[in-house]
Amino acid sequence: MAGRWERLSHHLSLDAPQRRVITVLLTLLISYGVVRLILNPIYINDPQPPAGDLSAKLADRLDPNLATAAELAALPGLGDKRAAAIVNRRETVLKRDPTTVPFHSSDDLYVIPGFARSTIDSLQPYLTFPGDNSARDKDRTAP
Fold it and tell me: CA 117 to CA 119: how far, in whole Å?
């Protein structure tokens, strides 16, 4: 058994020029990696804010009193079930009194099961309610 290992190690042994070539190649490879790491550092910034700087000025906000379930489901973090719940609540309120506005503010979404403070806060930049237009227009005209 020892003879087999000796023969194998003899076949795998490297002479001095081969060791120098491998050493030079490894040194170049490691140097390239270090230089690349120094020139292109990879790090993660602080988490991005939940709403962009210009989200208050977007004209593409949705009014839950008018939006379809598909439009609402496209909002981040809402999904099909919650969008359907908003539409069902809106239809229920309108069946009782067709002249009323079901959602006057984001606080009106609390009556829908599955809506907590965090959910409503995350939807705030994407929703508009009756009476919000004057505040949005004021933001647009501000320097």
Answer: 6
State the total domains in the chain. Answer: 2
Report pLDDT digits (tens) over 97-121. 888 889 888 888 888 888 888 888 8
Indicate the SS3 state at residue 66.
coil
Place of tokens 């993660």: 44
Q: Are 77 and 119 in contact (CB under 8 A)?
A: yes
Cα distance between residue 22 and residue 37, in whole Å: 22
Domain hosting 91: range is 58-141
Please state the separation of Cα 124 from the chain's center in Å: 16
Query: Residue 89's closest CA among 75, 134, 72, 141?
Result: 72
